[in-house]
Amino acid sequence: MHAKYISIYKEILSKIEGGEISSGTFLPSESELMKKYDVSRDTIRKSLDLLAKNGFIEKVKGKGSLVLDIHKLDFPVSNLVSFKELAEKMDNRVQTILVDLELISPDKQIMKDLNISKEENVWKVIRIREIDKEKIILDKDYIVEGIVPDLTKDICMDSIYEYVEEGLGLQISFAKKEVTVQNATKEDRKYLDLDDSDMVVVVKNYVYLSNAILFQYTESRHRPDKFRFVDFARRGY
């Protein structure tokens, strides 16, 4: 026989998984749950602690227990895939919105990110990724013009990787990635549906061709409650 707090945990979890309790809403207060289940505060807190530990709720000081979205999208950290390849697994739930496409002279930061000189021009591509009618990814790409001499709106709306590999005959080989959590910027708030979130997960990609030439720097800014960043690791000896 399970301890009472386990039974309460399972009942609340079942309601979250079944959609009876929606993500983005708050659970009843500890006092209300005590009354509902006729148990002590300690028992309720154990149930809530278990829900929080397993990623189903987030305790918000002064507000209560916020139900998290358990149907997150898997974002592969190790693999180098295009958004189009990820989107193909999501049926018709995805839309790309092209915000900006222009050829620019790089500033000092972009010169550093791409390891190029001031004389080399760069394609700047800004795209919003809308999934299930919510704007949850802001992609900012910087691509060396000397390697990719032409970019069009159609290419950016479809797949830049596909164009580079199939259109230009180049082989994209590997990327160095950096994942951080940062405060949302004014740009994030302008382009993304952040709701009450004030943080974004930032994935920086330094992408190389098979000849080890760095040709693209990408900064993908994600709404954190919509993604689960996954990896596979093997212990080496």
TrEMBL record:
It comes from the Bacteria. Keywords: DNA-binding, Repressor, Transcription, Transcription regulation. Pfam families: GntR, UTRA. The keyword Glycoprotein does not apply. It comes from Paratissierella segnis. GO terms for biological process: negative regulation of DNA-templated transcription. Coiled coil: none annotated. This is Trehalose operon repressor. Residues 2-70 form the HTH gntR-type domain.
